[in-house]
Amino acid sequence: MRLADLAAEIGASLEGDGEIEIDGVAPVDAAGPGKVTFLANAKYRAALAETTASAVIVDRSEPVAGPAVLRSDNPYLAFIAALSLFDDRPKPAPGIHPSAVIDPSAEIGAGAYIGPCAVIGAQVRIGCDARIYPNVTIYPGVVIGERFMAHAGAVVREGVQLGDDVVLQPGAVVGADGFGFIPMGVEPPLPIPQIGTTRLADKVEIGANSTVDRAAVGETVIGRGAKLDNLVMVAHGCRIGDGSLLAAQTGIAGSTKLGRRVMTGGQAGIQGHIELGDDSAVAAGSGVVAGVRAGSTVAGYPSVPISAWRRSAVLIRRLPEFFKRLRSLERRLESASEARKPDS
Amino acid sequence: MRLADLAAEIGASLEGDGEIEIDGVAPVDAAGPGKVTFLANAKYRAALAETTASAVIVDRSEPVAGPAVLRSDNPYLAFIAALSLFDDRPKPAPGIHPSAVIDPSAEIGAGAYIGPCAVIGAQVRIGCDARIYPNVTIYPGVVIGERFMAHAGAVVREGVQLGDDVVLQPGAVVGADGFGFIPMGVEPPLPIPQIGTTRLADKVEIGANSTVDRAAVGETVIGRGAKLDNLVMVAHGCRIGDGSLLAAQTGIAGSTKLGRRVMTGGQAGIQGHIELGDDSAVAAGSGVVAGVRAGSTVAGYPSVPISAWRRSAVLIRRLPEFFKRLRSLERRLESASEARKPDS
Amino acid sequence: MRLADLAAEIGASLEGDGEIEIDGVAPVDAAGPGKVTFLANAKYRAALAETTASAVIVDRSEPVAGPAVLRSDNPYLAFIAALSLFDDRPKPAPGIHPSAVIDPSAEIGAGAYIGPCAVIGAQVRIGCDARIYPNVTIYPGVVIGERFMAHAGAVVREGVQLGDDVVLQPGAVVGADGFGFIPMGVEPPLPIPQIGTTRLADKVEIGANSTVDRAAVGETVIGRGAKLDNLVMVAHGCRIGDGSLLAAQTGIAGSTKLGRRVMTGGQAGIQGHIELGDDSAVAAGSGVVAGVRAGSTVAGYPSVPISAWRRSAVLIRRLPEFFKRLRSLERRLESASEARKPDS
Fold it and tell me: Closest residue of C to A224, CA-based?
């Protein structure tokens, strides 16, 4: 693709030779001739100075020397547009593979691709343009909106409800039984039947091998546009607000409610039966054991406001010095007291 | 179902109108007319006051005003009985789907449901009334007791032994090779063949996408009635005692032994080659690096008795104040020493 | 097998009766007559004194009394050789099951076993002697070297490249879409197309239910001989160096680079966009938020050199004592100051 055409396609203004041929997108530290790259993180500005990429997408004010430059008011959106142009990953054509097993009572919308050995249970309803990869299992009674995409090995348990544009990465499990057992002393713990369900709103994405359990009663809910990374655990009865972003290996215990646009870093853990307000955030690796106010960011375990955590974290490293200073004070007081003794 | 009938079915005494029609169970903060609810957590007592549920299950002494009341000596068990009554999730009828692939040498007990694309290897023996969902894989030589339930995508590796009433949630993996490699300097680490196996006793449940590795030699063992939540990792050679409850994302390194009824919170991590006594507990997010005495609860990383951890956790937050007080003492001593100098 | 023959097979020198019959390998604390065992961990030296095993593999200098002894310069390698001799786990014979679904355009090398309901997409190329277990999914365009082993339920997404001798444990997912979304305020976060790929070099092993995401652009790379335990997350754009060993539930955020032979303990977390040098190590449960120098070991969260972390960890436990001593000093200074007042 000519660079000038690329610029037009992604709505960027061009500085440099529009005749250059562009054949792909590459990260700034690995891009070479023929590639367009992108400054996404200030850490890579130095690498940008040395890139041999043919062009770079930046914002209006970025000082750049060297390759051709594509300037955009929103370089992120321009970058996404460029990625889409060069996305050559194979897409399956509509069609149902003969080895797929679809219950006769299931209703599948037009335009679906259903891959080999995918299994779709009784009374399932799926909207149009679904893409269901091999070895996916949809249990009976599941209701799914338009443009569903389920990658290989994903599992949707009985009666789960999914909105439009839901994406399940490989191995994602939606609607497994919640972890509810009553300890019985010397007898095995007694399972609490998990008769509730799970509901994912429109535009929810669940990462590879993540699990969103069904509720004991009622629903576990993932709000509109919320995205879960890989190996995330959402326990029974949780409600995750619209647009929340949960990074990999986050775990959320039962009945906890996250507001809208909550963000968690990787390996964050959140206790059950608490609430996190809209636009709150949890730093990676933190353990949240109490409610979090809207708009605030917490860190540490037990978590505290991130500024307080940072102060404590620095001081923990200084504890050895601190103990020495304390010991020194004690010695000075002792020697002072010794020194005074003869006078008394 | 009439409320009076429900009361009789679950063995509760009724206060209120037995003619009310009940059509389901719901959580206290989402229950409406026609629903029976349950006070499971004192946090929800306030919500109970405002519920529009038609009835509530409580213990003998709970003060309740408003809806009809079902009193039970053990409201948890009564609640479970009510859940079972209203459990309308579809259950598969016995029968083997023609697309399931069962080795001719496998022996399957009466009453089994085996779903589409489930695969059962040579010499496998499975007891009666098994329920094996689609896309499950049972490797050769596996021996399984009665009433086995394996949800979609679960995998049981070669030679694993499972007792009666074992439940595998979707994507659970039992008997994968343990992580054993010998570093070889500049050459790739050398794999240690994992020739042992895994044994799950009766009434064990393994959560969605959890993994219980086979032993290098001997067995990895999960004791009777132990329950693992989702995304739990049990490494090769571990022994988990009867009735233990391991919350989501717990990880246990190789050859560690947990006693009976050990409980771990979410994201707990336990080092290899140590022992945790009967009825011990590990708080969520903690890292255990040494043995734990029977009956004790530990927290933190490295973990200490939970009371000590709580004291330290509070004091960590006070470190900034602490440093200030130390600095203030130092200044006072310095100025005192300055003040004395003229006298000397 | 006669013990003398075993000794010869594993290249060990024999002390004791070579006519003893050996029928298996067992851990030191569970071995009985007929078994050969192994001293792998000094913790088990006491157990060795009490073992009823028929023979034990040790190094040249280990003092051992009791059973027959097999001495080796490298007892670990001798132990591996013994394990291989007694590895009687069933291995599938070459052959393609009729229920496997292989696209006509795929090229599969000689000697392959392909199990029931395995699915292999268009344009896939796989080297000789592959072993692909049931319900595995290989997406279109994947290129794989010799002796590939993929356990049940593993998924390899489109266009991924795998070297020779790659092993995927059950449920491993390679090449799922990276977690890239742009927050859009009240609108759902916008997905960044993940058009890059994933490459695993020779002799890489990925643990059960682990996930290695594809890059947004370019490649996610796992170096030669690197081994990932179960439930490990490697995010988009990471590069893991040759021979690295990542223990279970480790998580590595996007674009981070690990050098050669990096080791992480279980549940370690590593921030995105940083570098860890060759032969560095991260203690279990630690959170790394900055680059780590080659050869160094870090611990804690935020991580520091492990010796510093150990000092701090000890002192954290002493904080209550510390606060008391501080308070005591303050009181002494106050009373001293009170005592001086009358003189002034």
Answer: C188
